[in-house]
Design goal:
Layout (H helix, E strand, L loop, with lengths): L1 E8 L3 E8 L4 E8 L4 H15 L5 E8 L3 H8 L3 E2 L2 H12 L5 E5 L4 E7 L2 E8 L7 H11 L6 H6 L12 H13 L4 H20 L9 E4 L6 H11 L3 E2 L7 H14 L17 E7 L8 E7 L2 E6 L17 E2 L1
Parallel strand pairs: 1-4, 4-5, 5-14, 6-9, 9-10
Antiparallel strand pairs: 1-2, 2-3, 6-7, 7-8, 11-12, 12-13
Helix pairs in contact: 1-2, 3-9, 6-7, 7-8
Length: 327
């Protein structure tokens, strides 16, 4: 079987998928990054190999996410793309007529506007954790409710408690106050969902025209309370795709499949990279006033790649045949 690998490494989760030649997902992995992206990718590849239905020849590999360059070196990527491109491609794969993509991950959120299958605008929030998966995880732990049950609690709410959602600190203080005055947990949780949706729309969607169909993806899409809150705020149906939590990986796998048409052979290093020992380090380049921080990755003392400098002089030379496509 011929397959195409997509790897999406973020600060909270590492997601991997393999699609077949018909662009169907044949195996996927969603795991925590836990501050160790190299180990997360290696263990994720191992897990992915175990879930494959049979022998698969990887004819193309792509990486995306905040650690896309690092993971691209690890797996031997043919294409390395930013998250906006990957998520837009995945959304259009599921809903070809999609015009708005809402994406909320572990520590950031983004909105993508698509017109005639082309990205025309986007916005990202990487500064504040309010409304992201990590904040919801923290609140579920504080309330003693598994995060998987947050959505069902929110759907049972009869009325939403008023929660301040602009700041995670204020939101938590508000939730504690509402508990102290006797609000039901269901109403508090749905009130939190509504507050986070207001925060998202005010910060990322301000001045933007959100047209249907609207696709909601990212780990937070598992929370049906957020879906309900978005639908009430926007007065339209919100579509959650089947593989909502690994859409970035699906998008870059599709791009790797497209790239494979122009390469005789994939740069993918094989699932055996799970057993290799990698190390990363960084240094400040003193070559000019930019003082760039250059990141270096090595295996068994051999430098595989360097990146981070504005001028590119520290990058390891690659031949055109093996060079991944960066964006």
């Amino acid at each position: 079987m011929i397959g195409y690998l997509g790897v999406d490494v973020g600060s909270v989760s590492t997601n991997l998928v393999i699609i077949d030649e018909n662009e169907e997902v044949i195996a996927s992995v969603y795991r925590r990054t836990q501050g160790q992206p190299i180990i997360a990718v290696q263990k994720g590849l191992q897990e992915l190999a175990d879930r494959l239905p049979g022998a698969v020849e990887v004819a193309g590999a792509g990486t995306t996410g905040s650690a896309r360059y690092l993971s691209g070196v690890i797996v031997g990527a043919d294409v390395i793309k930013n998250e906006i491109t990957a998520h837009a491609v995945a959304a259009l794969y599921v809903v070809p007529e999609a015009r708005t993509v809402l994406e909320i991950g572990g520590q950031d959120s983004k909105i993508i506007l698509i017109r005639d299958q082309v990205v025309v605008d986007f916005a990202m929030n990487t500064v504040c954790a309010a409304g992201t998966g990590s904040f919801l995880d923290h609140q579920s732990a504080r309330l003693g409710i598994p995060i998987e049950e947050f959505g069902s609690y929110a759907l049972r709410a009869k009325t939403a408690a008023q929660i301040a959602g602009r700041c995670s600190v204020f939101a938590e203080s508000d939730m504690i106050h509402k508990q102290q005055v006797g609000y039901q947990l269901e109403d508090i949780i749905y009130g939190l969902c509504e507050a986070l949706v207001r925060n998202y729309l005010n910060n990322l969607a301000k001045g933007k025209e959100l047209l249907s169909p609207i696709v909601f993806q990212g780990g937070v899409a598992a929370n049906l309370g957020m879906k309900r809150a978005f639908e009430e705020a926007l007065q339209t149906e919100i579509i959650i795709p089947p593989y909502f939590e690994v859409m970035g990986a699906i998008g870059v796998a599709l791009l790797a499949k497209e790239r494979a048409r122009f390469k005789e052979r994939s740069s993918f290093k094989g699932f055996a990279v799970s057993d290799m020992r990698y190390s990363t380090s960084s240094f400040m380049c003193q070559g000019c006033s930019n003082t760039c921080e250059v990141v270096k990755i090595q295996v068994e003392g051999k430098t595989l790649a360097r990146w981070g400098g504005r001028c590119g002089k520290w990058e390891v030379e690659r031949t055109e045949a093996t060079s991944p496509v960066f964006q």
